[in-house]
Write a structure and sequence with these properties.
The protein has six helices and 13 strands. The protein is an alpha+beta fold and 271 residues long.
Amino acid sequence: MFSNDIADYPDGIVLPVDKPYRWTSADVIRKIKWAACRHFGKKNLKVGHAGTLDPLATGILLVCIGPATRRAEQLQASPKQYLAGVCFGATTPSYDLEKEIDRVCPADGVTEERIKAILPSFTGEQEQVAPLFSAKSVDGVRAYETARRLLREARERGETFDPGDALQSSRINIYDLQLVSFSEHFKAPEPIAATEGRGRINLADVRSYDLKEAVIRVDCSKGTYIRALARDLGEALGSGAFLGSLRRTRNGGFDISEAITLDQALKQLGQ
């Protein structure tokens, strides 16, 4: 447990928290900030994170407390590693399981051999278009806010949602891609309906679809969207794809083996 005086930590505190499934990064920060303010007796203690994680992703979320928030940008700029479960044979507007499948695609040409053969072409410096359902800011507005509006309007018109050219590309670097496993049949999780609070994140029902899954280890730079990589892999293989799972296993010099649960973080703060 930490002492009750934040002055005992002149460089601040960095907690490598294993973000819970279906929690937003902001949910975690609010929870830890409340506990930290109580523990250290400070009303306006700074608490932030070094790189957001999607709600349906788990893994290392670096939570910076006090003076450590000044290091957040430096930590965020470090290389990252993910384990990505890419599902082939369909697409969703969000490129993950938060939204329902909107298009079914042929996946006959998606094989372990073809995936291994194509992965090297996705490494190196490149331009990547972020998912419209993302926290990327466009003209001062979060992309996901624009995406939700466009999706709602498309449904009202009875049309298929198309993000079009709403986002410009960004320069990223994918250092390495390795196929960890491949399955002809994706084992879809049980659906979860969105509710208020932290449960507002929907988990779509894709159990009736016959999808293939490749688990890929991704080593990449800051700003790389793994959902966008899944989209691009699907297109390159003549199919469609989205993320069925995502886990960040390395960030800011921390490995997933060093990560602590949210409950463990709160206990260190006297909760």
